[in-house]
């Protein structure tokens, strides 16, 4: 009989392979189309500007790539605000929350070394903080472990906890992001979940459009939403993982009652064996 731990490992690997195949199916064709279009645009650019050769164009493209990797948006001009201003920098929060958008990273050796030690102590501190915050959010409902073990009115309370959190942290924020950032609601919802789940792809990041003027209240509200949303979704994921483990355990460790009854009947039907006294 396969243990539930082995089943969990196999399911995890299967889920990774499934995701890889689906993403390849959905995204590879689009990537190929954009790559071909980019190569065509480079050829047109060289034809229109004959004073440039391919090597010069490739060098300029490399400069653009290095600027983007180092957090400099190639659009706009030099008046764009710095990513490392104290009022603008939220990189520290993305480090300790393990979101890691990838659109900004330290480029100096000193900054990289500090980032390692900052994350080394900051990540456990952040986990402890979010754990206490999550307990506070569910304190007036019931502990989630009791809900898993004792179904009853706590299920209604957890449903309220889940519904309220979904509205506050997943449904309503994309409306704000769509209005401020100019995204569609789908893009805003994608950014919302990717952020709160600490996936942090980095393709959508708030307050990075150089053509927009962001007020400090917007950044502050985004930071507050981020902290409470992380705590809420962590609690939801914790319950989901607990339920999945219990489901696998019940499914694969369900006792075979027929074998147990048969064994008991066999013992009852067998005549009692005479005891043999062995003299000492």
UniProtKB/TrEMBL annotation:
Pfam families: Ion_trans_2. It is found in: Cell membrane; Endoplasmic reticulum membrane; Mitochondrion inner membrane. Keywords: Cell membrane, Disulfide bond, Endoplasmic reticulum, Ion channel, Ion transport, Membrane, Metal-binding, Mitochondrion, Mitochondrion inner membrane, Potassium, Potassium channel, Potassium transport, Transmembrane, Transmembrane helix, Transport. Gene3D superfamilies: 1.10.287.70. GO terms for cellular component: endoplasmic reticulum membrane; mitochondrial inner membrane; plasma membrane. Residues 79-135, 167-245 form the Potassium channel domain. GO terms for biological process: endoplasmic reticulum calcium ion homeostasis; regulation of release of sequestered calcium ion into cytosol; stabilization of membrane potential. Signal peptide: none annotated. It is a multi-pass membrane protein. Its main location: membrane. It comes from the Eukaryota. The chain crosses the membrane at residues 6-26, 110-130, 158-180, 223-244. GO terms for molecular function: metal ion binding; outward rectifier potassium channel activity; potassium ion leak channel activity. It catalyses: K(+)(in) = K(+)(out); Rb(+)(in) = Rb(+)(out); Cs(+)(in) = Cs(+)(out). Homodimer; disulfide-linked. Heterodimer with KCNK17 and KCNK5. Belongs to the two pore domain potassium channel (TC 1.A.1.8) family. This is 2P domain potassium channel Talk-1. It comes from Probosciger aterrimus. The gene is Kcnk16_1.
């Amino acid at each position: 009989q396969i243990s539930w731990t082995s089943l969990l490992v196999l399911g995890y690997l299967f889920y990774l392979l499934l995701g890889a195949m689906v993403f390849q199916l959905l995204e590879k064709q689009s990537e190929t189309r954009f790559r071909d279009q980019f190569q065509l645009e480079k050829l047109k650019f060289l034809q229109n500007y004959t004073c440039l050769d391919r090597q010069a164009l490739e060098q300029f493209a490399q400069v653009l790539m290095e600027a983007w990797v180092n957090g400099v948006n190639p659009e706009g001009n030099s008046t764009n605000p710095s990513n490392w201003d104290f009022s603008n920098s939220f990189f520290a929060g993305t480090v300790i929350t393990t979101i890691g958008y990838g659109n900004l990273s330290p480029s100096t050796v000193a900054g990289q070394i500090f980032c390692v030690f900052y994350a080394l102590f900051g990540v456990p501190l952040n986990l402890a903080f979010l754990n206490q915050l999550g307990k506070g959010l569910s304190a007036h409902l019931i502990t989630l472990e009791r809900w898993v073990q004792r179904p009853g009115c706590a299920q209604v309370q957890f449903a309220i906890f889940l519904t309220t959190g979904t509205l506050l942290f997943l449904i309503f924020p994309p409306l704000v992001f769509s209005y401020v950032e100019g995204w569609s609601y789908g893009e805003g919802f994608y950014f919302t979940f990717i952020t709160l789940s600490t996936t942090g792809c980095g393709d959508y990041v708030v307050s990075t459009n150089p053509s927009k003027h962001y007020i400090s209240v917007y950044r502050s509200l985004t930071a507050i939403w981020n902290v409470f949303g992380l705590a809420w979704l962590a609690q939801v994921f914790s319950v989901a993982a607990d339920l999945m483990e219990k489901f696998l355990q019940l499914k694969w460790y369900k006792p075979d009652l027929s074998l147990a009854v048969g064994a008991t009947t066999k013992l009852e039907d067998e005549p009692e064996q005479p005891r043999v006294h062995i003299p000492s």
